[in-house]
Design brief:
The chain has helices at about 1-15, 20-30, 30-40, 60-75, 80-85, 155-165, 170-185, 210-215, 245-265, and strands at about 95-100, 105-110, 120-125, 130-140, 145-150, 190-195, 220, 225-230. By secondary structure, it is an alpha+beta fold. The protein has 2 domains: about 1-85, no CATH class; about 95-265, 3-Layer(aba) Sandwich (Aminopeptidase), CATH 3.40.630. It has an 8-stranded mixed sheet with strand order 1-2-3-4-5-6-8-7, sandwiched between helices. A hairpin with a 5-residue loop joins strand 1 (about 95-100) and strand 2. It starts with a helix and ends in a 6-residue tail after the last helix.
């Protein structure tokens, strides 16, 4: 009930665009978790008046996406999972775990966004108890996913070791694969990924978003977005050099196992009426 009421107040606030009145209502509701969450420096309502998802998005489009995202959380996600997603004390909802060579273990969680300008949710990857990679996105009830941020650990050595221990499976590719798993589970067919020149932190990063999306068979949709295919067909083993096939098979096994876990764990957070 607490989570549902929080979402109701968010929705009212977005429609009225009255942040002060919104906070007062949350405080009076006697739900401190809701008030604390919404009293953050960069709240849900403030996204309407700041950069959000990309540099070129209009106020009305922001409003439409935010409302549809809140509807998605309210209608699709159960109360227990909502509390996990938005509780600062928890990692979020476990999506999957994976193992590589040298006893490498990774954990993948769905949680709320750390950088609200880049979306409302994120998937994080933990390796040796360190947060090494994340991807920010927003998902809507109207059937879209918007990917607006990809962040890796500042240490190239850590990422290099992780990639090697995962048999050449690059963390950024694994994160996108999880987005596709989420899209598959919720039957979402429209996946948009931000272009480098439209990123909300343009000029403050060195990552080439366009290159990644094109590598994943994304096509230019408009000035701000690429559109990604819902399915990434694996390479044929016949196209892999003979001395690389063993690692290729191990990468595909990791990918398959993570995908299966993800589908099972997503089923535990769905709001069944």
């Amino acid at each position: 009930m607490k989570s549902r009421l929080t979402l109701f107040f968010i929705k009212i606030s977005l429609n009225k665009s009255n942040y002060s009145d919104f906070k007062k209502k949350c405080k009076l509701s006697a739900y401190p978790l809701a008030y604390k969450k919404l009293d953050m420096p960069y709240s849900m309502t403030e996204k309407l008046f700041h950069k959000y998802l990309n540099e070129k998005i209009s106020y009305n489009k922001k409003l439409s996406i935010l409302n549809s995202h809140i509807d998605f959380i309210d209608q699709k996600i159960n109360a227990n999972a909502i509390d996990k997603l938005y509780s600062p004390a928890l990692h979020g909802v476990l999506l999957a775990e994976g193992e590589g060579k040298n006893d490498t273990k990774i954990s993948l969680y769905l949680t709320s966004a750390l950088y609200p300008r880049e979306g409302d949710l994120r998937i994080i990857m933990r390796f040796d108890e360190k947060l090494v990679f994340s991807i920010h996105f927003t998902i809507t009830l109207s059937g879209e996913i918007y990917i607006a941020g990809v962040q890796g650990h500042t240490s190239r050595e850590i990422l290099k070791k992780l990639t090697k221990d995962l048999f050449g499976f690059r963390p950024k590719n694994l994160m996108v694969a999880l987005i596709l798993d989420i899209a598959k589970f919720f039957k979402i067919e429209n996946i948009y990924a931000v272009k480098s020149k439209a990123h909300v932190k343009l000029g403050k990063f060195v990552f080439d978003y366009d290159e990644l999306w094109q590598e994943l068979n994304g096509v230019s949709y408009d000035k701000a977005w690429f559109k990604l295919p819902c399915n990434q067909a694996p390479k044929s083993i016949d196209d892999i050099k003979s001395n690389k096939r063993s690692e290729f098979k191990k990468r595909e096994l990791i990918r398959e196992n993570i995908s299966i876990q993800c589908q099972k764990n997503l089923a535990t957070i769905v709001n069944y009426y």
